[in-house]
Amino acid sequence: NEPVDYIESINISSKILESCRSFSINEINSPDNILNSQENLMSTCFLNIDGNASNFDNFAVELSAIKHKFSFIGLTETNTDPENGNLYQLNGYSACYQSRFFCNIKNQVKSKGTGVCIYVKNSLNYFKIDDLSLCKNYIETLFIEITSFQDRTVIGVV
Question: Which of 4, 56, 78, 107 could be 115's S-S partner, Cβ–Cβ 3.0 to 4.6 Å?
Fold first, then answer.
């Protein structure tokens, strides 16, 4: 087997991210927006949700106002473990949650400002890349590889 070069995929993704920008719901829903003219275009949405318990319902309502269905939705600071991820469902998506940071000093899971997840459109197949998905006191990451595309595609949330 040939070793997987995730670093190259991450470098390519970093270059793509340099051209990213924010859009309003009206801009996304505009007929002139490329998202609305190309059905198979890969697209992502990212949000620091600052707690699923307090903000997920509002996010889901805002997302439903957008005509385009993103390929991937990344959330940070979910404050949610994989065991409770099924409480926060988005229609048409499956969710991959990373475990939250466990503080050995306090002998408890950090409750605020922790937790990352990626919602993946149901039509796409993926697997979690355990070697790149970390939960440390200084960083939390979640990376998945999409197996539905011809070329290797890695999506991550940090």
Answer: 78
Question: CB of 79 within 8 A of CB of 51?
Answer: yes
Residue 60, CA atoms < 13 Å, CB-side half-sphere:
14
Q: How many CB atoms lie within 10 A of CB 143?
A: 24
Residue 105 binned pLDDT confidence (cut-offs 50, 70, 90):
very low
Over residues 24-48, the pLDDT tens digits come to 889 888 888 877 777 677 888 999 9
Q: How many CA atoms lie within 13 A of 74 on its CB side?
A: 15
* Cα–Cα dist 145/154, whole Å: 5
Tokens linked to 140: 């939390």
Which residue, chain included where needed, has tokens 């048409």? 92
Full-model pTM: 0.82
Q: Is the pLDDT of residue 158 over 80?
A: yes
Q: What Å distances lie between residue 31 and 20, 22, 36, 45, 158, CA to CA?
A: 20, 17, 6, 19, 32
